[in-house]
């Protein structure tokens, strides 16, 4: 299913456009729920995303040039696990970004990781 979503989403793009794309991933069950995936769960999905990219994109983009961003209840409580284990290139911080103290704690967690 994931590979099919990519195939439809990138149909007709040229090599120059591939270089400017970032992939955002958030589990459907995490949207607005406060639930989040573990770093290990995210790493598995990132690997699946990279595999799907490899089917349809030039290899150099599938491996490194297309960042994979994770959103899904990124918090000060889970940033250490996500940063250490998730194989994520960046984060889409939702509700925690509305509280400067929590957002700063996420930033500090990334600096530790």
Fourth-level CATH superfamily: Aldolase class I
Mean pLDDT: 85
Query: What is the overall silhouette?
Result: elongated
CATH C-level label: Alpha Beta
Order of strands, main sheet, comes to: 1-2-3
Number of strands: 3
Order of helices and strands: HHEHHEHEH
Helix content: 40-55%
Low-confidence stretches: none
| Gap from first CA to last CA | 32 Å
CATH architecture, by name, is Alpha-Beta Barrel
Question: Number of helix segments?
Answer: 6
Task: Give me the CATH fold name.
Answer: TIM Barrel
Tell me the strand percentage band. 5-15%
What count of structural domains?
1
Structure write-up:
With 113 residues, the chain is mainly alpha-helical. Helix content is 51%, strand content 9%. The protein has one domain (2-112): Aldolase class I (TIM Barrel). It has helices at 2-10, 15-18, 39-56, 59-65, 79-85, 100-112; strands spanning 23-25, 68-71, 90-92. A three-stranded parallel beta sheet has the order 1-2-3, covered by helices on one side. The radius of gyration is 15 Å and the shape is elongated. The termini are far apart.
Write a compact overview of the structure shown.
The chain is mainly alpha-helical. The protein is built from six helices and three strands; from the N terminus they run ααβααβαβα.
